[in-house]
Amino acid sequence: MSQMLKQTPSQTVGPYFAYAWTPELYGRRPLATNRLATRDMPGEHIRIEGTVHDGEGQIVRDCVVEIWQAGADGRHAPGAAGFGRCGTDDQGRYFFDTVKPGACDEGHAPHIAVAVFARGMLSHAFTRLHFSDETAANAADPVLATVPADRRDTLIAKRAEVPGGVVYRFDIHIQGERETVFFDC
Amino acid sequence: MDTVVHETEGDFGPRDWAQHPPYLSPLYKSTVLRSPRKPLIPMKQGLSVRSGPVFGQDSLDPLDHDLTKNGRVNGEPIGERMIVTGRVLDESGRPVPHTLLEIWQANACGRYVHRWDQHDAPLDPNFFGAGRCLTDAEGRYRFTTIKPGAYPWGNHHNAWRPAHIHFSLFGPSFLTRLVTQMYFPGDPLLPLDPIYNGVPEGARELLVSRFSIDVTEPVWALGYEFDIVLRGRQATPMEG
């Protein structure tokens, strides 16, 4: 048995990451953006949007939300929607333009993996976004089943059909009464 | 970005909370309202998180690894030129090849390019302070940059951040994502810094780079080594 190395500890992104992580404003090429869908990408084109709040309900404007998802067929493949990154704006808002993923794990409801980074978070937090119109699949989802019933709602993005298209609202509460469920995974 | 999936067999070992800082670390005041307080819910790893994005050479510009060159406007950046290099490994000591690192940092005076940074220290027109690179087949990465300066912050009276470089890594999975900070050996601000000291004792020392005369290039730049260990796959029991 070889000696195991210890994991390098996490540290906060701090307040000054935007010029490196979302550098369009600084005239630089970003690694990834919040627009995952190309015009001709198969699947239902959706916007996911929300606001990030702290433990007093105040908006968090130095937060980054990262997502990782399958395409509409449930597969992770080149050219499919995949990884997205969005910093919160001056109102604490973020959004992603993407396609609704198909289920990629047997028996699981369609969902998107989410990581939350912010000034004041020494370690990032993992959560996952489910879709409000997937009632039956959500009811059978083995991960949602492990979440206390009164907190499950924090993981369900609410669908709305607006003139511009389909929007799912997914607010993130880092702390507080409506604290988003975060996972150890 | 190439959205290609790495080999996805096998669960990753858990995040080692004896190594990582807890969400609530009251001496770092911003954690007080930004720390999840309800217990994390254990989640079995499915394909949706065992997989992860892969970034290739097409995500990089030719000067991304050289911060002394990628922000030049009319000359060279001011400050102490340095090389930072190391290996990205998993917990079993296996290299993590072809994985993307992002770094960002203050300039030699302790000032960030970020529009919110109002510290009364000069911006350097020739230093942007952000870079990217990929590890090679042996998990090795290398940046050339300028040694960052310390800077004051508002956490408490006379608070100063020790000089540091922010690192962001992806690894083979969404679960291996890591954001951290690299510090410098012997920095007198380290014992006073609530962000560094938010990490458990015995683990925080892993965030301090080593000066290396072997990495140092004669008549050119000082060398520092900083290895990074990401979560690894759990050993799978042999059948039969």
Give a structural overview.
Chain A: It comes from Azospirillum endophyticum. Chain A: Its EC number is 1.13.11.3. Chain A: Keywords: Dioxygenase, Oxidoreductase. Chain A: InterPro entries: Intradiol_dOase_C (IPR000627), Intradiol_dOase_core (IPR015889), Intradiol_RC_Dioxygenase (IPR050770), Protocat_dOase_a (IPR012786). The complex is a heterodimer of chains A (185) and B (240). Chain A has 185 residues and is mainly β. Chain A has a single domain (18-173), classed as Aromatic compound dioxygenase (Protocatechuate 3,4-Dioxygenase, subunit A), CATH 2.60.130. Chain A has helices spanning 18-21, 135-139; strands at residues 45-53, 63-68, 83-87, 93-99, 111-118, 125-131, 156-162, 165-169, 172-173, 183-184. In chain A, strands 1, 2, 3, 4, 5, 6, 7, 8 and 9 form a nine-stranded mixed beta sheet that branches. The longest helix of chain A is centred in the last third of the chain and has 5 residues, at 135-139. Chain A is globular, with a radius of gyration of 17 Å. In chain A, 52% of the residues are buried. In chain B, strands 2, 5, 10, 11 and 12 form a five-stranded mixed beta sheet that branches. A four-stranded antiparallel beta sheet of chain B has the order 4-3-8-9, with no helix packed on it. Chain B is globular. Chain B starts with 40 loop residues before the first strand and ends in a 10-residue tail after the last strand. The model of chain B is unreliable at 1-5 (pLDDT under 50). Strand 10 (183-184) of chain A pairs parallel with strand 1 of chain B.
Taken as a percent bin, the fraction of beta residues of chain A is 25-35%
Q: What name does CATH use for the topology of chain A?
A: Protocatechuate 3,4-Dioxygenase, subunit A
Give the percentage of residues in beta strands of chain B: 15-25%
How many alpha or pi helices of chain B? 1
* Shape call of chain B: globular
The count of domains of chain B is 1
Order of helices and strands of chain B: EHEEEEEEEEEEE
Query: Ends of chain A: how far apart?
Result: 25 Å
Quaternary state, please?
heterodimer
Annotated CATH architecture of chain B: Sandwich
Compute the number of helices of chain A: 2
Q: What composes the largest sheet of chain B?
A: 5 strands, mixed
- SS content category of chain A: mainly beta
